[in-house]
Structures are given as C-alpha cells and as structure tokens.
C-alpha cells in the first residue's frame, strides 16, 4: 500500500493496473487514519485486486516471434519478422507490424518495437493534445510534456505543470489516450483529486468513467512486454 498525503477533502483510494493500492488523504492525516480509510473500502479494493489477478492469468510473456499479436491505437496487428542483411526498420503494413533487420533475436526485436512505439507515441500524443486542449477553456498555453515509462500510471503531472505520458499508452484506443491527456491537463488547474478536479474532468469528457474502465481492463495486455 502507498500512502500519499495531499489536500483532497476525504480519502481517495486508487487500485493501479499492477495491483498497487494508493491512498490519498487530506494534509496531516496519520498513517493509522489512512489505514482505517482503506479498511472501510476493503471489499471494494479486494474485488478490484481479484479482477486484476484474473486478467493477469491470461497474459503470457511475449516471445517476439512472427504471428504474435501486437496492439497499436486499440487495433490488433500481427508481428512479422523479416531477415535482411542491409535493412533495419519497423513498419506498419497491411495489418502487420514488420520488424526487419539482420539479427532478429528476441531482445533485438523487443528493443526495435519499443523504439518504434516511442516514436509513434511522440507523434500521436502531440496530435491528441492539440485535439483535446480546446475543450479546456481555462487552459492558457500548452504545457511541456515528455514520455516516461511507468509501471503504475498512464500519466502524471508535476507541481510545476510538466506532463508525463507513458509510451505504452499509444497501444490503447484513441479515446483512452484522450482521457489520460485530459486527466493530466485538469491537474494543471486542480492538482489534487478533489471534487472540483472531477467536475473539470466531467466537463472535458462526460463519459470519462466508462473510458477509464475500458483502459483499466486492457492494462495487463498493453503493459505486457
């Protein structure tokens, strides 16, 4: 369990995709009080942990061989390894993600795909940021942002206003990407998960809870490497 002090009006509990439980509490809350808040939601937390465990049972480690399924923007593609002595690249072509190169070991294919996803994420996230920022009437200027691989979060926003986005998110459907970006942009106006924060998020994306639920349900597959 992670206990994080902040300034929400009451304890807010998050169950992250990897099973980590985070409790955000009002400033000055003791560890004992945080544990009591968690115990009150114990059944809800256990149900979520059981759902995560059940989903993880069906996720197998990748071998990075031809025929495996890869995700990009919520769509499924077939991995194709292509040996070549003079070419080295990754391309999206006719329902396949093709990795071409002279040495196609598991580690090299994995590294090539990771670099490809990061390159795609830079382009996609920039376009989606431009698309959604007009919904936030209070946003005066576009924040600085960068990619950062995270095990428990799809995005984060620092107190200085720097936005971090997980490159694995580019595997998710576009509406899920928009949700994460909007979530972090709302933190520029309200840094904690207060009622005002959720009011801002609801204004920006009225269906955000359904989209978040969809993203949570895909997390084990999207983060699987």
Give me some keywords for this one.
225 residues; alpha/beta; Zincin-like; 2 domains; four-stranded mixed beta sheet; globular
Written account of the structure:
By secondary structure, the protein is α/β, with parallel strands linked by helices. The protein has two domains: 1-58, no CATH class; 106-222, Metalloproteases ("zincins"), catalytic domain (Zincin-like), CATH 3.30.2010. It contains six helices and ten strands, in the order βββααββββαβββααα. It has helices at residues 31-40, 42-56, 106-132, 174-189, 195-204, 208-222; strands at residues 2-6, 12-15, 21-26, 69-72, 75-83, 89-93, 96-101, 145-147, 155-157, 163-165. A four-stranded mixed β-sheet has the order 4-5-7-6, with helices on one face. Strand 2 (12-15) and strand 3 (21-26) form a beta hairpin. Helix 3 (106-132) crosses helix 4 and helix 4 (174-189) packs across helix 6 (208-222). Mean pLDDT is 85; it is low at 1-5.
- In CATH's first tier, which class of the largest domain applies? Alpha Beta
CATH topology of the largest domain: Zincin-like
User: What's the gyration radius in Å?
Assistant: 20 Å
Number of β-strand runs: 10
Question: Which of globular, elongated, flat, extended, rod-shaped describes the shape?
Answer: globular
State the low-pLDDT regions, or none: 1-5
Mean pLDDT: 85
- Spell out the CATH superfamily of the largest domain: Metalloproteases ("zincins"), catalytic domain
Order of helix and strand elements from N to C terminus: EEEHHEEEEHEEEHHH
C-alpha end-to-end distance: 25 Å
Largest sheet entry: 4 strands, mixed
* Count of helix runs: 6
Helical residue percent band: 40-55%
Strand order of the largest sheet: 4-5-7-6
Overall SS class: alpha/beta
- Strand proportion, as a percent range, falls in 15-25%
What is the CATH-assigned architecture of the largest domain?
A: 2-Layer Sandwich
> How many separate structural domains?
2
